[in-house]
Design brief:
The complex is a heterodimer of chains A (447) and B (469). Chain A has a single domain, classed as TIM Barrel (Alpha-Beta Barrel), CATH 3.20.20.30. Chain A is built from 14 helices and 13 strands. In chain A, the strands form 3 sheets. An 8-stranded parallel barrel of chain A has the order 1-2-3-4-9-10-11-13, surrounded by 9 helices. Chain A has a two-stranded antiparallel sheet with strand order 5-6. In chain A, strands 7-8 form a two-stranded antiparallel sheet. The radius of gyration of chain A is 21 Å and the shape is globular. Helices cover 36% and strands 14% of the residues of chain A. In chain B, the strands form 5 sheets. Chain B has an 8-stranded parallel beta barrel, surrounded by 5 helices. Chain B is α/β, with parallel strands linked by helices and 469 residues long. The longest helix of chain B is centred in the middle third of the chain and has 16 residues. Classes of the chains: A alpha/beta (447), B alpha/beta (469). At the A-B interface, helix 4, helix 5, strand 6 and strand 8 of A face strand 4, helix 2, helix 3, strand 8 and strand 10 of B. Chain A: Keywords: Flavoprotein, FMN, Monooxygenase, Oxidoreductase.
């Protein structure tokens, strides 16, 4: 199964030994995560319920998903296809959907192109797919992937701010990096030495990893500063003085870093959520640091509850080290899912797809094959290890997405572990996150 | 369009069908934000209202401008006009969800973007709108805007067209890297792609040296419709060689005809025919029940567009000095303009419009003295008048005459109010144009190319995967 994520798995992902400071930081670090961690034991107050997201990618996460009769591979490049999927996710009251993306064709090989013709190839820009869906949905969060390595943070910041406007406060983004030389060649600006797979665990390869994630951290910092570069009440429309804006409430961000410098302010006013949701997927120490430093929500790939506990602890440690111990940071577990009412049916479907693909399904994330009730058991067990929610990757989106919305969701609702209606109107609100104060606010400084 | 083959009694030529588009009111003093009816220029509801009005009136397309740094004057952000706008691609794609036929034209800079990314955004917009995307290619050279980007302000002014041309050529190679028949998606047989090399490209040139595989399959229009907005000799040549339409600034008859002749005359050199490049000037308008009432309204709109503070700032473009101490209701400054190289205003096109400020200042002082005009009066009187002022019947007739006289192929209308500034035009002028038989009563096709009467770009063969020199 394709690990389309560009985040490199690394042996350093092995859980760090639990330091007492990391352990003690966990409960205080993130109220949302901490309360969710106890959700399995506590009664089902809405705040203690699980959060659920679905990751959308082509016909699904199994490479042969497009060959299932339920799939519509000819529609992958039409708006209607994506609108229907997100509408289904919204019917299931999910927190948000993510949209995969990349700056090159999909490949079965990590960081290298392939010449395969038996898998889905080609995709639409994820931010634009989200924008196309936004006016036709009303509650669900929309989280497209963007590649920090080759894009302009100024463009990304205003694009996500605008997604937040067109969705009335439901935008986020998932930041990823790429070391793939063939993707760098699409831009021609940078070349990466030591980007080959076999270099990954050499000192030079690790240095490149660190550089890519430092670049991502700078990218996020610029994107966030630009969102705050307009104070909420900067637009005054004061007819008496003829002034449209109060320019004391527009701010230069004056970012100067190793990879780029950006002056600001943004051309787009502060978005409805103030700060749209920033997320990233992480499999190792370096990306865990990015989660701790820069994000509102991290996607992790735990093998089991013990592993989940260890990596949650590592991220919490990074969060504390970044001086963010008091801030909410959601940590979601990623799982690939094959869901059927009978376990044997799910197993048979997985076997059939593996047969078509010519190889057994593997993934960076744990693969769950079974019933909605079985999955609900697993999610509750993993939540007990400190995860506040899950991002499910449907193996076959046409089959497993409805199985989530019509099977898993009612099951979790029966257990009091999932919402029965949308409450908040924004994505941050669904996740229990406040609308943050503006870092440049003169009002706040005066208090 | 072939059914409209009547001939004009006046010119004896076939009656031309005209094209109409709507420019979302922008970040300049044309837009009157102080009117009580003026709404948000950021909220999606404003864009949706504007787009739906344009589609109800069967317009060809909606047009969005772009500026990548907030304008400044005297070292501070310019605060007298509308400030701020959304991201072009994102808002256009969202508009595709609330319209069915309307073309969606975005202004995208070729200096502060990369071809691979822009090509995938336009191809995605074209897919997600069912073939309604258009790209107004603009260039920029200023280091001021470059301060917001990785690339910075590295581009010498003389290279901006060479980069823009190569940018467009490179993007075209990316669009053409998929022929359109590669995806077979044979579920039983297990073949998704017919061609293992789909999307392969190599481009090696002065500005771009890239290769690999483009990852968006061919979109409904093949490529977006391409607009060009520059007016220099180089800009006109660029348009004649590579554009489908020009967003021009000539909305008076004589200037329009001269521009039209000039640009259309350049097409033959590139083996292109007259109808392969449309000339569409921007045009402001004010409607009233009668011509007199419209004239009154037009003066009122001008006064709202040019507040006292705006008049002083406008004078500063010419004087190139801080004139904040002057009274807008008083006489013009006695001091002369500063002819120095630096410019007081940054991030806007007007900066370079006044080639001989000393002569303009002299002329303006004489005009003001002769007419007893204050600074504000002068700016109002000498500033751009609305292109069309009158009753719906007058405006419809003027627009039709203009197009039949080959001063343009239609207009990109620029209302002064957001979001309702197009409503009256749609309700009163468009039906009259339809009665005259010069504007469609319904869309005949689904893509923007259909609306504009442009042919499909040739489907690339395998030979198109070439290295450019």
């Amino acid at each position: 199964m394709s690990a389309s994520s560009s985040v490199p798995p690394s042996p350093s992902a092995a859980p760090s030994s639990a330091s007492s400071s990391a352990a003690s930081s966990a409960p205080s670090a993130a109220s949302a995560a901490a309360s969710a961690a106890s959700a399995a034991e506590s009664s089902a107050a809405p705040s203690g319920a699980l959060h659920l997201a679905v990751a959308l990618d082509g016909a699904g996460w199994h490479p042969a998903a497009w060959r299932e009769p339920v799939s519509r591979p000819r529609d992958l490049f039409t708006a209607g296809y994506w609108v229907e999927l997100v509408a289904e996710a919204e019917r299931g009251l999910l927190d948000f959907v993510t949209f995969e993306d990349g700056l090159g064709l999909q490949s079965s090989r990590q960081d290298e192109p392939d010449d395969r013709t038996d898998q889905v190839r080609g995709r639409l820009d994820a931010v634009l797919v989200a924008a196309r869906v936004a006016p036709l949905t009303s509650h669900i969060g929309l989280v497209p992937s963007v590649v920090a390595t080759h894009t302009e943070p100024f463009h990304i910041s205003k694009a996500i701010a605008t997604l937040d406007y067109v969705s009335a406060g439901r935008a986020g983004l998932r930041v990823q990096v790429t070391r793939a030389p063939h993707e760098a060649a699409h831009f021609g600006r940078r070349t990466f030495a030591h980007a080959r797979r076999e270099d990954r665990d050499t000192p030079a390869g690790r240095e490149l990893t660190a550089e890519l994630f430092d670049g991502a951290a700078d990218h996020i910092e610029v994107v966030r500063r630009l969102w705050d570069s307009w104070e909420d009440d900067a637009e005054i429309r004061d007819v008496a003085t003829g002034r449209f804006v109060d320019r004391d409430k527009l701010h230069y961000i004056d970012f100067e870093g190793r990879f780029f410098s950006v002056k600001g302010p943004s051309i787009t006013p502060r978005p409805p959520q103030g700060q749209p949701l920033v997320t990233a997927l992480a499999h190792g120490s370096v990306p865990y640091r990015l989660l701790g430093r820069s994000t509102d929500l991290g996607f992790l790939t735990p093998r089991d509850a013990g592993h989940a506990r260890a990596i949650v602890e590592e991220v919490r440690h990074e969060q504390a080290a970044a001086g963010r111990a008091g801030e909410p940071l959601h940590l979601f577990g990623d799982l690939v899912v094959f869901l059927d009412d009978a376990p044997a049916a799910a197993e048979a479907r997985r076997a059939r797809l593996d047969e078509l693909a010519g190889a057994p399904c593997t993934s960076d994330a744990r693969v769950f094959t079974g019933t909605p009730a079985g999955l609900a058991d697993l999610l509750q067990e993993l939540a007990g290890a400190g995860l506040s929610g899950f991002r499910l990757r449907p193996a076959v989106v046409g089959h497993d997405l409805p199985a989530i919305t019509r099977g898993l969701v009612p099951e979790l609702q029966r257990r009091g572990a999932f919402r029965t209606a949308y409450g908040a109107g924004t994505l941050r609100g669904l996740l229990g996150l406040d609308r943050p104060a503006n870092r440049y606010s003169t009002d706040a400084a005066a208090v | 369009m072939s059914q409209h083959t009547e001939h004009s009694e006046r010119t004896g030529k076939p009656v031309k069908q005209l094209h109409l588009a709507a420019h979302f009111p922008g970040v300049n003093n044309t837009t009157v934000w102080s009117d009580p009816a003026a709404g948000s220029h950021i909220e999606f509801s404003s864009f949706a209202h504007f787009a739906r009005t344009a589609e109800r009136a069967k317009f060809d397309f909606l047009f969005l401008a772009e500026g990548l740094r907030l304008r400044e004057q005297g070292g501070r952000i310019y605060d007298l006009d509308v400030v701020g706008r959304p991201d072009t691609f994102t808002v256009l794609t969202a508009l595709a969800a609330v319209t069915d036929r309307l073309g969606l034209t975005g202004t995208i800079n070729s200096t502060f973007n990369e071809p691979y990314e822009v090509a995938r955004q336009f191809a995605s917009l074209d897919h997600l709108s069912g073939g309604r995307a258009a790209w107004n290619v603009v260039t920029s050279w200023d280091a001021f805007t470059g301060e917001n980007f990785r690339r910075g302000g590295f581009l010498p002014q003389q290279e901006r067209y060479s980069r823009a041309k190569e940018f467009l050529a490179t993007a075209t190679e990316l669009f053409d890297s998929w022929r359109g028949d590669e995806i077979v998606a044979d579920q039983a047989g297990g073949t998704f792609l017919r061609d293992a090399g789909a999307g392969a490209f190599v481009h090696s040139g002065q500005h771009f040296d890239i290769e690999g595989r483009f990852n968006v399959p061919r979109s409904p229009q093949g490529r977006p419709v391409v607009f060009q907005a520059g007016d220099s000799d180089e800009g006109r040549e660029f348009a004649a060689s590579s554009a489908d339409a020009i967003f021009s600034r000539y909305s008076t008859l004589k200037e329009g005809q001269a521009f039209y002749r000039d640009v259309k005359g350049r097409l033959a050199r590139y083996g292109r025919s007259h109808d392969q490049l449309l000339i569409l000037p921007a045009a402001t308008f004010v409607l009233g029940d009668t011509d007199e009432e419209a004239g009154e309204l037009a003066r009122e709109v001008r006064r709202r567009q040019v507040s006292g503070a705006t008049a002083i700032k406008h004078l500063e473009f010419v004087w190139n000095r801080d004139l904040s101490a002057y009274d807008p209701d008083g006489p013009l400054p006695d001091i002369d303009p500063d002819p120095g190289e630096h410019t007081i205003a940054r991030g806007r096109a007007q900066v370079r419009m006044y080639r001989d400020p000393l002569a303009i200042a002299r002329e303006w002082r004489e005009l003001a003295a002769a007419n007893k005009w204050s600074i504000r009066d002068l700016v109002i009187e000498t500033g751009n008048r609305q292109a069309f002022v009158g009753s719906p019947a007058t405006v419809a007739a003027t627009i039709d005459d203009f197009v039949q006289a080959d001063a343009s192929d239609g207009f990109i209308l620029v209302p002064h109010l957001t979001p309702g500034g197009l409503d009256a035009f749609a309700d009163t002028v468009v039906p009259l144009l339809q009665e005259r038989g010069v504007f469609r009563t319904d869309y005949e096709g689904t893509t923007l190319r259909d609306h504009l009467g442009l042919s499909e770009p040739p489907a690339p063969g395998a030979g198109s995967r070439r290295a450019a020199s």
